[in-house]
Amino acid sequence: MVLTQGLAATYFIYEGTIIIDQGDSDSHFFSDGDTVYITYAFDYSVKDTYPDDPNYGLYPDATASLRFYHVESGFEAHFTGGNTSVLMNQNPDGNPARSDDGIFIFGSTPLNNPELGDNAVGSLSLEAVGDSSMFDKDKLPDGPIDLSMSNLELNFSSSYDYIILYMDLEFVSQGPFDIQ
């Protein structure tokens, strides 16, 4: 991943609870009602690879930081270097009467060595889908986004196993993030 050294960005912090814990492996580590924190920051120097599509923005390696912290266990996964996608006016389930916006933030390079039991976490992704008022452009958001109904997927390196945590998150704060 190539980042612009010294580029100032903003990190966004969210706090919330796990609503539903599901997955194929080691889901006993998390429980419904547990407290979690999510922090993310983007590299805003990354350009949209689909500039002519007003409803889809793909930003390769734009995830400067994606961090998940589980309060009850002290587990932390911190990743960088993944793609971020912003979707607007999508019609899930082929229903033309329904139009959703969404964001998918992917972290592919671990900055720590996150493990759950004997399983190394190989990637992390945060997904949120909302109604068509979630975004007004397909650009990387430069302010807080609605993560009240979001999910986090922890994928394990050594297998196809994963854990999906559905969460209710609220924006807490933001601050400067310097890409080093």
Q: Could you characterize what this model shows?
A:
With 180 residues, this protein is mostly beta strands. 0% of the residues lie in helices and 54% in strands. Strands 1, 2, 3, 4, 5, 6, 7, 8, 9, 10, 11 and 12 form a 12-stranded antiparallel sheet that branches. The chain is globular and about 45 Å long. The model is unreliable at 1-6 (pLDDT under 50).
Characteristics of this structure?
180 residues; mainly beta; twelve-stranded antiparallel sheet
Largest sheet: 12 strands, antiparallel
How much helix is in the residues? under 10%
H/E series, N to C?
EEEEEEEEEEEE
Structural class: mainly beta
Amino-to-carboxy terminus distance = 12 Å
**Average pLDDT number:** 84
Low-confidence stretches: 1-6
**Global morphology:** globular
What share of residues are in beta strands? over 45%
Give the total of beta strands. Answer: 12
Using only C-alpha atoms, the radius of gyration works out to 16 Å
Number of helices: 0
Would you spell out the secondary-structure blueprint of this structure?
Layout: E1 8-23, E2 35-42, E3 56-59, E4 63-70, E5 75-80, E6 84-90, E7 100-107, E8 109-110, E9 115-116, E10 119-131, E11 150-156, E12 162-178
Antiparallel strand pairs: 1-2, 1-12, 2-4, 3-6, 4-5, 5-8, 6-7, 7-10, 9-10, 10-11, 11-12
